[in-house]
Amino acid sequence: MSQVEETTARALLRRLAVEQSECRVPSLAAAIVRDGQMVWFGGRGQVEGAAPTADTQYRLGSITKSMVAVLVMRLRDEGVLGLLDPVGGHVPGTPFDEVTIAQLLSHTGGLTAEPPTDWWERTPGLTAEDLFARIGPDEAKHRPGRTFHYSNVGYALLGRLITKHRGMSWYEALRREVLEPLGMNRTTLRPVAPHATGYAVHPWADVLLEEPEHDHVAMGPAGQLWSTAADLARWSAFLGGGGSGVLSAETLAEMGETTVVADGDAWVAGFGLGLQLARIDGRRLTGHGGSMPGFLAGVWADAKAGTGVLFLANTTSGVRYQLLNELLAILDEHEPRLPEEWRPVATDPALLALTGLWHWGPTPFHLLVLPDGKLSLNAVANSSRGSRFAPQADGTWLGLDGYYAGETLRVEADHLDLNTFILTREPYEQGPPIPGGAGEWHA
């Protein structure tokens, strides 16, 4: 199964084979997505005596969370809830009533990482009633909003919220509203053959230990789903912008906005609303990793490049997550994209008249008309203050990103009014538009 060139396919397969061999993985499957389609699949190792296929199921682990988050965003878009709502207004009775839904989605609610039970990933699950009856004030580890603290318990609470508002299990809602519309019919709550068995590989010998698998019930939204490379390729295409009616493009983009970043000199990893984020080798990636005893998985989408990548493995540990980025790098090296052809676009003369040089005080800005009819305003020497703007019905322009995201730009006869900041054709142009007045320049 390959739509890439033979040499590219060989290079991708070799990288996969190196990972399976060096990391001693019982079986390993991976795929590349381009323009919404799986263009390469590779499988190494064995499942029931044969190489894994694109239809072989593996556990997804925490990739499940990203799918649960889509359901929550659908509820938001329907007006059933708000992201700033305290979760206690929807699912009362836990010590986390004041934590907002957005904080649960982004792991900034301060909840404990794991439930106060036996190792939940290796033991049968509890009902929501039993689980939350065990959770007391000590399971609040940080002030809500203070820091990023990954919480499996938070997603159990979101699963309970979905069940309450949909009147059915979180998985049944997911199946009807997300999985079936995306054609992900091999993504299930429990394994359905053909599927891999989860193993731990002995650290000092080439022997295996079979890991247990259970229904985790209330903790299921944190990591229970099983899926295939073919289905996960559809998920990667969805994350890359192929909403297919499941979510609007605007909501999907909102999920991928940076809510919190990993602490460091420069951010390379962060979290949005249910999605992990990464900046690697110039790529901005959205997706999620997953692990459960016996399984590892990961999926990324690069919306700008129109590419995605994923892997699935039946091992408790060992796969190096840089595998995904290295597979993308091989694709870029062997089959780089051609830039889109430039073509002229008809533009309103009134917009053409706005283009060119403007000044905010002494600082020069360039105003451009984009091919889609939006405006782009950026400082000539320092682009930290800049945004794209979309036209509004009342004649104003709404900031879409950057410093002026959400702010209003008004076009006046002789100046631009950007949320009280005045831009004129000349620096500190004399006349009434400049608040505080403007004198003459002098030595």
Explain what this protein looks like in three dimensions.
- The protein is an alpha+beta fold.
- The chain has two domains: 1-339, DD-peptidase/beta-lactamase superfamily (Beta-lactamase, 3-Layer(aba) Sandwich), CATH 3.40.710; 349-424.
- Helix content is 24%, strand content 22%.
- It contains ten helices and 20 strands.
- It has helices at 6-22, 63-77, 101-106, 128-133, 152-166, 170-179, 229-239, 249-255, 322-334, 349-354; strands at residues 27-34, 37-45, 58-59, 199-201, 208-210, 226-227, 260-261, 269-271, 276-280, 283-292, 295-302, 307-313, 356-360, 363-369, 375-379, 386-391, 397-399, 408-411, 416-418, 421-424.
- An eight-stranded antiparallel sheet has the order 2-1-12-11-10-9-8-7, with helices on both faces. An eight-stranded antiparallel barrel has the order 13-14-15-16-17-18-19-20. Strands 3-6 form a two-stranded antiparallel sheet.
- A hairpin with a 4-residue loop joins strand 8 (269-271) and strand 9 (276-280).
- Helix 1 (6-22) packs antiparallel against helix 9 (322-334) and helix 2 (63-77) crosses helix 5.
- The model has no long low-confidence stretch (mean pLDDT 94).
Pick out its properties.
AmpC-like, eight-stranded antiparallel sheet, alpha+beta, 443 residues, Beta-lactam-related, single chain, eight-stranded antiparallel barrel, Beta-lactamase, 22% strand, CubicO group peptidase (Beta-lactamase class C family)
